[in-house]
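Quick one, probably user error.
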């Protein structure tokens, strides 16, 4: 069976579970809080219907990765996860070494489900720790505390061979020194993978409203750079270099699912607000589903699927997406693959000028990647190359 490589990223399935117990003030994901219990069985049946629909569009693929994201998929019953995985196995061939990841919040209730998820087929958890500081967790609107986060990592380490956890840094009022101490604690708990996200203020979030009202101060770009630098230094010292702008792993332990996105592979997305990119005889299609959970459910129950977007991408759009995704990776991109996807060559003048500015570098293998200096200003570098 062919393995996942940079030029053959493979096929994955993304399942979106859109519910959370509360809305975090920085979050712009498609996550919803319900005061009444969710009819989980109906949602799982509808996810099954969407899986059947996407399978009819992607016959013959081998699933190399399944990712349960959200929202909070660790609010799902393990038997729901098992039902969904059985449905996937019914519709596609599944690679023997398939990676099956479930995002989990570290509450004690959710950690207690880890063994059942493992028995259902999940072989990797990604835990939303966010901080090891109780006051910071409160400010981030999280419902767990540092002790629960630590316990969830312990349980994950016992149950799963592979686990990861997320932290958010450059938070309001956080100092670089305090982050350094917190990151050292975090790194001592890492087995193979950690995600480190610099806090960004997203549109239409509570944090945006607070910032606009002058009630939330986040680090400016100079301080943000200091946070970034210490993050890169400490992770490199622990043999956990960044393989993507916010993700660090030991070699060979990268998130295979996210590599499918960043290497511009193919994936089917099911559930409310899920995105997909699938390749059809006419070309690559961008798909996304109805975001509102109950509306999505109604449409799927009536029509078997709830796509609200299903567009053939132009070469130009594919080229832009390819750069946007691929340049996030420290392995960079293959210029020949860009040419195949975009139907044009990268502008040699722009490449030369970005190399001269130290923002990108051509590797001996012929791949083009963003340099260490370019990563903190990645968006600007990508915009320049794509123009
Ligand atoms: S738990 Fe995650 S998905 Fe849910 S609101 Fe918080 S950040 Fe968003």
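Nope, works fine. Designed sequence:
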């Amino acid at each position: 069976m062919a393995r996942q490589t940079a030029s053959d990223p493979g096929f994955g399935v993304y399942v979106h579970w859109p519910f959370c117990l509360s809305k975090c003030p920085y979050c712009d994901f498609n996550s919803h809080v319900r005061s009444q219990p969710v009819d989980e069985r109906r949602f799982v049946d509808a996810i099954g219907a969407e899986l059947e629909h996407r399978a009819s569009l992607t016959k013959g693929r081998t699933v190399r990765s399944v990712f349960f994201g959200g929202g909070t998929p660790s609010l799902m019953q393990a038997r729901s996860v098992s039902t969904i995985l059985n449905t996937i196995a019914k519709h596609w061939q599944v690679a023997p070494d398939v990676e099956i990841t479930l995002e989990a919040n570290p509450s004690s209730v959710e950690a207690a489900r880890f063994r059942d998820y493992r028995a259902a087929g999940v072989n990797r958890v990604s835990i939303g720790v966010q901080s090891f500081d109780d006051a910071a967790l409160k400010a981030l609107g999280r419902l767990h505390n540092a002790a629960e986060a630590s316990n969830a990592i312990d349980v994950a380490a016992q149950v799963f061979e592979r686990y990861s956890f997320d932290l958010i840094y450059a938070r309001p009022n956080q100092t670089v020194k305090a982050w350094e101490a917190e990151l050292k604690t975090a790194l001592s708990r890492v087995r193979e993978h950690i995600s480190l996200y610099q806090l960004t203020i997203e549109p239409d979030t509570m944090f945006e409203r607070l910032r606009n009202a002058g009630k939330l101060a986040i680090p400016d770009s100079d301080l943000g750079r200091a946070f970034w630098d210490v993050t890169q230094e400490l992770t490199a010292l622990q043999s956990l270099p960044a393989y993507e702008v916010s993700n660090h792993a030991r070699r060979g332990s990268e998130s295979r699912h996210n590599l499918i996105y960043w290497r511009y592979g193919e994936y089917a997305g099911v559930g409310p607000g899920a995105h997909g990119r699938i390749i059809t005889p006419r070309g690559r299609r961008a798909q996304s589903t109805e975001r509102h959970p109950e509306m999505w459910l109604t449409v799927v129950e009536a029509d078997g699927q709830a796509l609200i977007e299903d567009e053939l991408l132009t070469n130009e759009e594919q080229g832009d997406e390819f750069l946007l995704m691929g340049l996030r990776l420290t392995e960079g991109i293959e210029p020949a693959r860009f040419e195949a996807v975009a139907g044009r060559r990268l502008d040699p003048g722009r490449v030369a000028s970005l190399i001269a500015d130290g923002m990108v570098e051509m590797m001996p293998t012929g791949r083009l990647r963003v340099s260490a200096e370019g990563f903190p200003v990645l968006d600007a570098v990508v915009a320049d190359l794509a123009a």
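The first strand starts at residue 11 and ends at 17.
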